[in-house]
Amino acid sequence: MFSSKERFKENFVARLEQREDKESLQTVYSVLTAMVKEWTYDDWEQTNQQYKEQKRKQLYYFSIEFLMGRILGQNLMNLDVHGFVEEGLKELGFDLHAIEELEPEPGLGNGGLGRLAACFMDSLASLQLPGHGCGLRYKGGLFTQVFQDGFQTEQPTVWIDEKEGWGIRREELSLDIPFFGSIEPGIESNRLKPVLKDAEWIKAVPYDYPIVGAAGKTVNTLRLWQAEVSSRPLPKGKPRTLYEQETAEVTDRLYPDASLDAGKILRLKQQYFLCSASLQTIVKNRDCPLSDLARHVAIQINDTHPALAIPELMRILMDEEGMQWEEAWGIVNHTISYTNHTILEEALEKWSSSLLERLLPRIYMIIQEIDRRFKEKTQQEPLDEWQRKKLAIIENGVVHMATLAVVGSYKVNGVAKLHTEILKVREMKELNDHFPHKFHNITNGVAHRRWLLKANPELSSLITSAVGDEWIREPIKLHKLHRFSKDPAFLQDLQAVKIAKKRQLADYIKTHQDIIVDPESVFDAQIKRIHGYKRQLMNILHIQMLYNRILSDRSFRPYPRTFIFGGKAAPSYRYAKEVIKLINTVADQVNNDPLAKKHLHIVFIEDYSVSKAEKIFPASDVSEQISTASKEASGTGNMKFMMNGAITLGTFDGANLEIVEQVGEDNAFIFGLTARQVMQFEKEQSYYPPDIIQHEPDLQLVMAQLLEGSLSDGEGNISAIRNQLVDCNDPFFVLKDIQQYGKAHERLLSAFENSLAWQEMSVVNIAQSGIFSSDRTIQEYSDEVWQLGRVPSNLL
Ligand code: GL2
């Protein structure tokens, strides 16, 4: 690796000279990527070597999603060479930023859960902890969102670039994974061994990606498995072309539509494929007697998608390694831990027993036995029928994956204090009563190196010039910024940084969406998946109410605001797609109205992604976190905004509560129903929206516009929204909270007009954000769950 700009330039130029198309940015990208890979690979080998020599306990993080974002810039940053590479390239006439934009973005995740996994990878390596990711190498990743006439359409995205990609194919580590077939009793070395007959095998090929920690030295591995055709014979009667097609589908895309059986089978195949390939490899490569596995290996399952790891590890230990049930169970139960990320009913995975049994006959037998033994254990407990149901892994022909995950794990955590509390006292109360020591909270965090240091170099420099650079390694040291919260010069600099970031975003919006926005206006952003409970609907209806008032009330001329939306709807989620169309419809009206556009602008950033998020968080003044209280498990966007100095406008939900705990109610704008109130309404079914609308003329008007024409653009475009608001009694309390939401906006706007006071709030938010670094989160997992210890840095 190079220690100076000059050495880098020499080497870079020498390599570029050997290429044909020297002028093209693509060639520059290719040369630079190759150089970074070389630097990385040396440290990677060394890290693996040292882990082996030191016999360190290894963590494997199993996740169906890893939303990594672009890798080149992050690696340059973590290798500590970003500065001189950028300067060196500039002197040679190249713009590093433009080069970074050429990298195809791996969108191997949907939203928060997948991005969390990526932040964790960064923190593990940066804390020099031996933690690796295990996932799937989807060919497509998440779809590309394209608006047509305001509607979301989906186009396939291909991110894999075999030539320039970061992954290394490890053909020699491939293995075959069986599906279908039937189990027959067999005997091996004098013991019974179930034998799988007539199975269909799929080859799992690992691709390894280096995960570079800060300061370079530790390079961990993200291993993504790709499904390929196996050389084993096909079961009788299976047509080869069908087998090839089905095999390609396994790692073709994230979350195939599971509304039909074929889609369900495919999802289950993905899940088992990931678990089996990863576990077989872990067991085979272990550095200890099998009975000691739990002391040498920790496995974290990211939500229930990899919960089949529990029966699969049992199968490996018993069928392949000859262990008895009790011993195997003891190992599984001390190796695997589980994170729950949601209490939304629709997201709690359930699989039909018959489907599972058909696809994975041996695994199903093991799940049945886990269930039978657990039922036997709880038999003596004085429980009513409902409570017993809540403890059943298999019930009425359905396998409950969350229950399986809890029973098979030694630790179960929620992702924010409120969420964990709801799990313990409501959603998983019976399980928590039975296993009182299993449940605990670990609040999420985000990689401050990506979301502050890399996304916002201007703010990072300002922070460093004020308090030194310790915060980069120890983000809690951002505390030191409090000293500057009343320093007018610092506050002005902070404001200048924000304006600079807003200008950059405004330029991007102009270039890509052809909308001109005013960087002096309040940038108010809601960027996340589109979902009923996240209430983008409340946001857009409120904007429409402001618009109505601007038109009808000559004295109402509010401070200019730019409302920014970003996010994708699941392709089959009709309601969310209607909300997207609605936002675009209101945007068209407002942005083209000569009077309104002096006060309001609306921008829906198309095809929201990690790299676009990196532009929006630093440029935002206001962080919209307005989910129905109790529904958002944590949220992590809220933390990224906070780190970049945006002020939270939110409900008492998820990690918002902990943000307010950090900054105080004076430095956030909180409104609306509490989780307790929401749950009370739900229990009593006592919320009736017409009671509210009746007394609020502005709400009546907006509902009429929505339901009767000017916004609906024809009945077909809002039928799912109508169904929710009218027929289903507004399950996410949009109409109940919207007036309080409007009041919170008013408070916020008057606060913004005092710019020094606003910057002071901003400083408090940045200063208190260190606790939301995923370094803190990972240290908690390591101390409380995985027990990884830390590699002394002199060994590295
Ligand atoms: C989620 C939660 O909805 C979100 O609140 C949380 O921050 C993340 C990470 O813990 O997990 N659960 C989930 O299934 N997705 C999330 O984003 N997709």
UniProtKB/TrEMBL annotation:
Reaction it catalyzes: [(1->4)-alpha-D-glucosyl](n) + phosphate = [(1->4)-alpha-D-glucosyl](n-1) + alpha-D-glucose 1-phosphate
Molecular-function annotations in GO: glycogen phosphorylase activity; pyridoxal phosphate binding
Modification type N6-(pyridoxal phosphate)lysine: residues: K640
This protein's GO CC annotations: cytoplasm
PROSITE patterns associated with the record: PHOSPHORYLASE (PS00102)
An annotated GO BP: glycogen catabolic process
Cofactors named for this entry: pyridoxal 5'-phosphate
Enzyme Commission code: 2.4.1.1
Family annotation (Gene3D superfamilies): Glycogen Phosphorylase B
Entries under InterPro entries matching the protein: Glycg_phsphrylas (IPR011833), Glyco_trans_35 (IPR000811), Pyridoxal_P_attach_site (IPR035090)
Keywords associated with the record: Allosteric enzyme, Carbohydrate metabolism, Glycosyltransferase, Pyridoxal phosphate, Transferase
Stored PANTHER family: GLYCOGEN PHOSPHORYLASE, GLYCOGEN PHOSPHORYLASE, LIVER FORM
NCBIfam families: P_ylase
Family note: Belongs to the glycogen phosphorylase family.
Function: Phosphorylase is an important allosteric enzyme in carbohydrate metabolism. Enzymes from different sources differ in their regulatory mechanisms and in their natural substrates. However, all known phosphorylases share catalytic and structural properties.
Protein name: Alpha-1,4 glucan phosphorylase
Organism, scientific name: Planococcus koreensis
